[in-house]
Amino acid sequence: MVRNDKSGMFEEARPRLLGLAYRILGSRADAEDAVQDTFLKWQAADLSAIETPSAWLTTACTRRCLDLLKAAHRKRVDYVGAWLPEPIHTASDENVEEKLALTSSLTTAFLLMLERLTPKERAAYLLHEIFGQSYDTIAEALDMQEAAARKLVSRAKSNIGVAQTRHTTPRERQDALLTAFHKAIHGGDLAGLSALLSADVKLTADGGGKAATVLATLSGKETVMAFIAERLTEYWSHYRWETAQLNGGRGIVLRSEGGDDVAATVSFGYDDKGRVSDIFIVRNPDKLANLDETAVH
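and the corresponding structure tokens:
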């Protein structure tokens, strides 16, 4: 009976743990590994000795994520080209206002901003600002005094510049962007897309050395539009396009012609005026393998 109770408690906590792990690690596969490792540790624990199961699970999962994050950073030393977080399908939610903080903390732009932080700063910030954990819970998870946890969160907030990375853009404007992008690739109508881009827009592509793509980030509207006009109109015209909810925003999934294999995803970042500040393209097949599974975070 105790085992069934424990399993039920864990399954109730699983979406929250997956959401935390994904935001710390930027990888769905690694996040699922971290949560599974947490489950195994939970199954072996003595429930009668655990005062607050949710805090225990948060601590165990956070510590496992930090271990995996250190290993991931070592691997990135040899990563070919730009690194982007693994894209995920996110379930649409009609209660947008209620889920605003969670949704905005899933965007590629926000996850990349977290890369500025040390592993412990990253965990502390997410636990407090996104998941609403108390400072004493954070201190327990990170094995430090509560005062140190407060300073860690404060330093992370200062370093991350949250106001610049968590802008939200109306769904209608996002859909207009997808239409303009499609017209630019398939119809040669570049003016409509250009009008939606900021002057200093950046285009970043992740092929991981396993798929052909531009290696360096492109900067400036003129440069980005030239790349789209001269390269993407040729390379992407034969792909099957699908609109999708990616990392909390509207994006594009490109599939091979006549098949279901995902060839690329495209997602966007926006500035405070609703203009496109970033275009993110993921081509690395390892990061696209599980894309069709909806993630609820």
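(Above: one complete record from the training split.) The chain has twelve helices and eight strands.
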